[in-house]
Amino acid sequence: MAEAYIVAAARTAGGRRGGRLSGWHPVDLAAQILDALVARGGIDPALIDDVIMGCVSQAGEQSTNVGRNAVLASCLPESVPGTSIDRQCGSSQQALHFAAQAVMSGTMDVVIAAGVESMTRVPMNMPSQLARKNDLGYYMSDALRARYPGPDFSQFIGAEMIAKKYGLSREMQDRYAYDSHQRAIRATRDGRFADEIVGVAARTAAGATGELHLVDEGIRFDATPESIGGVKLLFEEGSISAANASQVCDGASGVMVVNERGLKALGVAPLARIHHISVLGHDPVIMLEAPIPATLRALSKAGLQIDDIDLFEVNEAFAPVPLAWLQATGADPARLNVHGGAIALGHPLGASGTKLMTTLLHALRQRGKRYGLQTMCEGGGMANVTIIERL
């Protein structure tokens, strides 16, 4: 079977809700990433076999196959198809897995895996909320409720369940959140994100500002432990607050995946080899714990130990997720989310998978390290795991 290689990876800087990317139509924002991947590789866009686009809230401006629409808004020719997929927060990580499977099978040679989410213009849960409002049904069917008779699946309740199960106090979560901001601040000031970020025009609802958007807007450069600890809890008896959870975010990201034939056709050198891909289903009630068993299974399948991995990206949907993951896997905390995570940088849902991969790949190159592992919790109790080897 052929190998799968990453030859280009890029992302926008994250934009806050109502912030510097809020004026961008998500189709056009995604097209900026497609154009950037082509430009960075200096390749003929007609050689791209497919574009696979992750997007969670596929309604409004993100409806009607946002992946294909992004192709048509980009420099890519009409001959390049595009499709949109939803594996909740892991949507573009799954897009990467589908791209890898396509080139490894030999049915395709060059595939772009990407993701986009404008959480300003298409709010989270908009599809199900519109359906309920217009009496068009609800995702919780009778059979589903019979199997899971409790309340509707909730990521917020799941986060609290994980915090309680692993003994994670609010103070521990707030400290982790503060550290995430500090890592992101250092990475920004040290220029660690410079090569991975695609500069796009800052554009609010009022129009273009005349500036390029190059810095993740969610980073709180003035954050203190006290300011984070002072944010109101989501549940009175809980430990989760908006400050120790991921930020609502607008953004787009993508990677180009090829096999050996693709390398020759494009005339480019590989940045990394995809060493392992897998996905695992888990309890949809606690929901966010899946990265733990998924990581352990992935390492076993890959013939690796946790200490063989040089850097980890575990999505910071809520602080208890990476904290529980560290506790259960025994991973070195110094190798985790070394440039900060979604608590500081934002979590643009469908774009987060290839966003994290872009950051992981660049961090490995900057540090001269070999193996990186990415995983993230996903709605419905799932987790993708990707292990790459830097070349």
Helix-strand blueprint:
Layout: E1 5-11, E2 15-16, H1 26-41, E3 50-54, H2 66-72, E4 82-85, H3 91-105, E5 110-118, H4 126-133, H5 142-147, H6 155-165, H7 170-189, E6 200-204, E7 207-213, H8 225-229, E8 249-258, H9 260-266, E9 272-281, H10 291-302, E10 311-314, H11 320-329, H12 342-345, H13 352-367, E11 371-378, E12 382-390
Parallel strand pairs: 3-4, 3-5, 10-11
Antiparallel strand pairs: 1-8, 1-9, 2-8, 5-8, 6-7, 9-12, 11-12
Helix pairs in contact: 1-2, 3-13, 10-11
Description:
This protein has helices at residues 26-41, 66-72, 91-105, 126-133, 142-147, 155-165, 170-189, 225-229, 260-266, 291-302, 320-329, 342-345, 352-367; strands spanning 5-11, 15-16, 50-54, 82-85, 110-118, 200-204, 207-213, 249-258, 272-281, 311-314, 371-378, 382-390. The chain has 391 residues and is α+β, with helices and mostly antiparallel strands. The strands form 2 sheets. Strands 1, 2, 3, 4, 5, 8, 9, 10, 11 and 12 form a 10-stranded mixed sheet that branches. Strands 6-7 form a two-stranded antiparallel sheet. α1 packs across α2 (66-72). The protein is globular. The two termini are 19 Å apart.
